[in-house]
Write a structure and sequence with these properties.
The structure is a homodimer. With about 270 residues, chain A is an alpha+beta fold. Chain A has two domains: about 5-105, D-amino Acid Aminotransferase, Chain A, domain 1, CATH 3.30.470; about 115-270, D-amino Acid Aminotransferase, subunit A, domain 2 (D-amino Acid Aminotransferase, Chain A, domain 2). Chain A is built from eight helices and 16 strands.
Chain lengths: ~270, ~270
């Protein structure tokens, strides 16, 4: 599929790029429908926040223009943006000035079984815990070995996602999703102040719930609290919402609030 | 300078490499003198351990042969090896089978002032803390944003290195060095069970101390204990040993044991 490097077709990253050397950069994985990037402003907002946290000087308007053009050409699928701090000399010190590098990769939408959205998914209980690093929590940076290790824990296709907890055992997210609980009609999701990725779909669901006057709380979530929840679902910007119907010995029905939000989100992913 | 990709001259990394996407790989930074890689077996041992921990199937003998050849051509300087899990499809799941990718980069030895080794260095007290992740502790993986953030904390050249502590405040290492204390004639260095990189020079110093019947302890090190130490030094495989002469308000003389080990290590770096 197509790849652009700094705005030009290209498929060879300079080997001294700091994205490779240190994971010194950020990424966004954007669903593209009919040539348009979905949840686009949320992706750009998160990227901007990541650049601020890592002190990568990004030209957001240049990037916006490039992404619009790239997605128009791609038509359908997934546009992945990788933004790195660019080429570096030896050593960790960020180059001054630095010239960030932009990589755009197009691919087809992953072929998730329709059943995941319809009947729900089971979560694999990952043993890999998320380390607590407030400086990196929430942003979508390129240091993703914890997710690689967690995803490598299972091959059994009966598990569509895995549950990740932090070092203290608190429930945080899925390996490639955020996670919500419904408790007494209230939505709950992890704060992501210590670890985790603040997904664009998570942000969209929080905004939509607010619009629908459904209470939403960002809080610490104990494992027991998850097991006692009335409904559970996972979400991301590519597939929308998958109801969670099983974790270890616990089984859940697909709940009414999950279905309601799923339908709102499905509309967004097809018509935004 | 020279770069080899999978054994051939090349300078464009395929853009779907997982080393870029997730920092899914390892690296080694090897000093080369007269065409020979120094502390070579220790570098290969650590790489092997990293591959085992990340389940990257490496052909260590192929890599050894390639490095020997590369270093022979380079003659003097630094050979950096980056080993990644290779090209991946979308998503965190490691490809099965996977074809690891080898990148070799040659450069000149960094131009550290001779004064660092002779008169000692001051440490910048980094505010960036190391997250605790036992699954990744000790190995030299490509997820290095914490080091990037820590190194970006100071530009003042009066600080040659920075001190990194863990989330609980324990003393761990430098940004690009390991750290040793001398307390009552005994060497102490952090265990690196929760975070940190187990440097090849650290391992060499532990072995040399043992040979010289100097007691060495790997243990937790409180910040107060560091401040009370008789001598402090930092080390790595490129520069050997730098005495530490200052941290915040504390000043140290360059100690006798530091000088002794420095001389042993300097011989290794010129004659091994």
């Amino acid at each position: 599929m197509s790849s652009w490097l700094d705005g030009q077709p290209g498929d060879g990253l300079p080997v001294h790029d700091r994205g490779l050397a240190y994971g010194d950069g950020l990424f966004e994985t954007i669903r593209v429908a009919d040539g348009r990037p979905l949840l686009f402003e949320r992706h750009l907002q998160r990227l901007d926040e990541g650049c601020r946290r890592l002190a990568i000087p990004v030209d957001l308007e240049q990037l916006r223009g490039e992404l619009v053009h790239f997605c128009r050409d791609l038509r359908q699928g997934v546009a992945k943006l990788i933004l790195t701090r660019g080429t570096g000399q030896r050593g960790y010190a960020p180059p001054q000035p630095c010239q960030p590098r932009r990589l755009l990769l197009g691919s087809a939408l992953p072929g998730y079984p329709a059943q995941h959205a319809e009947s729900g998914v089971r979560l694999f209980p990952c043993a890999t815990r998320l380390a607590e690093q407030p400086l990196l929590a929430g942003i979508k940076h390129l240091n993703r070995l914890e997710q690689v290790l967690a995803r490598a824990e299972w091959q059994d296709p009966r598990y569509a996602e895995g549950l990740m907890r932090d070092m203290s055992g608190r429930v945080v997210e899925g390996v490639f999703s955020n996670l919500f609980l419904v408790v007494d009609g209230e939505l709950r999701t992890a704060t992501l102040q210590r670890c985790g990725v603040a997904g664009v779909m998570r942000a969209e669901i929080i905004a939509q719930a607010s619009r629908l006057t459904i209470p939403v709380v960002e809080c610490d979530i104990a494992y027991d609290e998850l097991l006692r929840a009335d409904e559970v679902f996972v979400c991301n910007g590519l597939y929308g919402i998958w109801p969670v119907i099983g974790l270890a010995e616990r089984a859940w029905p697909v709940g009414a609030l999950t279905r309601k939000l799923q339908s709102v989100v499905a509309d967004l992913l097809s018509n935004s």
